[in-house]
Amino acid sequence: MSAPLAVGNFIVISQKQYEIKNINNKNEVFLIDSITEAEVKYAKRVLTDLIFIGKAEVISSDSRYNELHNENSKDFYSYPDELKAVARQRYKFVRAFNDEDIKGCSERTLTPLINKVSEHHDIEKISWRTLKRWIDAYDQYGIKGLIPKTAKKGNRKPRKNDQLEKLILEALEKYKDAKRPTLRTAFTYLNDHVLLHNDEIENDTSKITNDELLDTFSYQGFINRAKKIAPVDLLEAYLGKKKTINKYRVSRSSAKALYILDRAEIDHTGGDCFVVDDVTRLPLGRPTLTSVLDKKSKSLLGTYIGFEAPSFVSVARAMKHAISDKTEFLEQFPAVEGDWPCRGAFNEIAYDRGAEFESDLLEDALYELQIVGRGNPAGMPWYKGAVETFFKTVNQTFLDDKPGKVFASLFDSNEYDPLKNAVISLSDFVEAFYVWVVDIYMKSPHGNDEVVPYVAWKRDEKYIDIEPVSLKKLELAFSENTNAVNNDDGLVYLYIKYDSKLLLDLRKIYGNQKLDFKVNREDLSQINVLSPIDDKYYPVMAVDQEYTEKLTYYQHKVIRRYRRYLAKSSVDEVSLAQARRRIDEIVNRSFSSTTKAKHSHAKASARLNDLGQNSIGKNTLVSGSYNIDKPSSPSVPKGNVKKKESNSDFLDKYKQQ
User: Fold this and answer.
1) In what order do the strands lie in the sheet with 288-294?
2) Which superfamily, per CATH, for 264-470?
3) Which residues, 6+ apart, have CB-to-CB distance to 367 below 8 Å?
4) Residue 333: closest CA among 629, 639, 622
5) 348-351 and 372-375: which strand pairing?
6) Cβ pair 426, 301 in contact under 8 A
7) More confident of the two residues 46 and 573
8) What is the mean pLDDT of the segment spanning 291-320?
9) Which of 11, 55, 521, 553 is the most exposed place for a label (fewest CB within 10 A)?
10) Are 517 and 529 contacting, i.e. CB atoms less than 8 angstroms apart?
11) What average pLDDT does this structure show over 489-517?
12) What pLDDT, on a 0 to 100 scale, did the predictor assign at position 251?
């Protein structure tokens, strides 16, 4: 993240550096030019806007902060595994401290917490002063502040020797296989073996060595190890699946948020509406919405609309949209009248147990942005009830009575065909959605407490510091981490070659060395390579720019699969660019076939061509064989917020277009 707007730090605006000398209670920031010593004054909001859109950058007066958090600095993933493991273990104590909302750091307040965390995770206890140092380091530098500056010293062997570990596993297996297993029975089995083993050694002088004696193992320690090794299998064997859920369910409801950005929730839903291609007017299917909602204000923080299946890419696009400033984004939608003030990184985000949320890619991104990820218990959607309610609102108010809407009961009985009624183009659907979000949803009351999201956000905004996150920082955080050998052809990722003067210079210095780099799955035309010289990321372009321009990871996978098919068919190997061209021809040809075939291929084609809010105006026909002009202005009404137009009036007018 960018360094905070704080006295003593520096800010660079239009290539001029200023020192922050004072911030008064009116949120006015006083700066001094580092060269001319001229004084200038800015509203804090103006500086924050400049930072969000990348036209200003704050530089900390703390050199260690700059080393760790420069937008090109090494990210958490790129540190050695052993150092990351230490940081993650330290973070367990820090996270517990933040979750408990303990006031003050003293021996009296921290010691009970240390005992609780140590027992729960079966890790060594630490002193309260050590925990205080870790808390301060995390507050100042984030997860990277918990990484030791040198390799961890001391005994790295397991706390229990190998023979005892084998006995624990043996007891657990016996415990799982019993018809009516109990933890106490398994522990007794283990304890008896340890006692007999030690007694045999102590009474046999020919074998006696202190190293062979086994340590005793407490009952609670055994339970902790059982949960750690195979928690689901063990608990289900003990209580059964249903009782396991009930016994270990969290008794409290979903966490409450005191202020905006305290807690966000994310999920996917299929829009209950069929849309058509902008150019061909052929049905594409139902777009997927991935949305991020603020728990406190019920504000929509950001959304991604498109045909990308629920994946890390769709999650990354939605979260980047949620954190970013929306001013430039809304400029492409002239029908939107209001402003959308939501921006900034949230403290925590709740999600379900989908594979895209449990991925290492998302975990590393959240670590880097200092966001706590909270996976909801399976089958308990109320833990992220805010976003579930929002989706219900979307389908009941925004999509209600839209041409092409999917009515489950009618659709199943074939009395209503949404394909025939699908007349909303993808770009018009996206624009209409954001008119509804900004000018209606954000300005309307919701829930039993009738919270108006826009009003709630603006009210809380005055009391919290929203730390800007640069676009470059977001791109790096949500990029895939990988590595490859810097050989004579440069770096190769999925058969795409990347090379530059930087890589050439590194080859001259280090030879063919393995390098870490980050890949943005939304655009494979460029990667960011971590230089071993200064531990910073530098952009490196793909050698074949014609092929890789705006090429997505999914598109590249399809093209590679088609290329392999050609090879198996004994066809001469063709370049990736030629394969891509032939796929475009096949996709376009499918649109000229029968109606049934058109629909069967439409949604796959939409995903292949990466249609969605990030590519307004694009269409499924890459070669442009259909020359149908898009209307000069979108067929959506302007939300009349001043007259407080009702949702039903807005939607009735939209239906008539």
Assistant:
1) 300-306, 288-294, 264-270, 348-351, 372-375
2) Ribonuclease H-like superfamily/Ribonuclease H (3.30.420.10)
3) 76, 77, 142, 143
4) 639
5) parallel
6) no
7) 46
8) 90
9) 55
10) yes
11) 93
12) 38
CB 308 within 8 A of CB 554: yes
8 A C-beta contact, residue 475 and residue 537: no
Reference 193, options 220, 222, 158, 155; nearest CA is: 222
Q: In which element (H, E) is residue 39 found?
A: strand 39-43
Q: What is the enclosing helix (H) or strand (E) of 498?
A: strand 496-498
Contact 312, 359 (CB under 8 A): yes
Which pLDDT does position 594 carry in this prediction? 45
Give φ, ψ of 432 to 5 degrees.
-60, -40
Map tokens 């989908």 to a residue: 354
Task: Count the alpha carbons within 13 Å of 184 in the hemisphere toward its beta carbon.
Answer: 1
Is residue 78 classed as helix, strand or coil in its secondary structure?
helix
The length of the chain is: 657
Hey, is 424 helix, strand or coil?
coil
CB atoms within 10 A of CB 133: 15
Q: Which of 59, 2, 41 is CA-nearest to residue 466?
A: 2
Q: What percent of the chain has pLDDT over 70?
A: 67
**Which positions ≥6 away from 445 have C-beta within 8 Å?**
451, 452
Residue 623 phi, psi dihedral angles, 5° rounding: -80, -10
Backbone angles phi, psi at 301, to 5 degrees: -80, -35
Q: Which tokens belong to 560?
A: 């590679």
Residues 635, 637: Cα–Cα separation, whole Å? 7
- In whole angstroms, what is the distance from residue 31 CA to residue 34 CA? 9
Q: Which residues contact 476 (CB under 8 A, 6 or more apart)?
A: 71, 72, 75, 368, 518, 528, 537
* 584 token code pair: 């475009």
The reported pTM is 0.64
336 touches 442 (CB < 8 A): no
Please report the DSSP string for 503-531 in residue order: HHHHHHHHSS-EEEEEE-TT-TTEEEEE-
Question: Which residue in this structure is represented by tokens 């041409």?
Answer: 403
As a whole number, the mean pLDDT across the chain is 76
Report the distance separating Cα 520 and Cα 528, nearest Å. Answer: 9
Above 50 in pLDDT, residue 205? yes
Is residue 293 classed as helix, strand or coil in its secondary structure? strand
Residue identified by tokens 């090879």 is 567
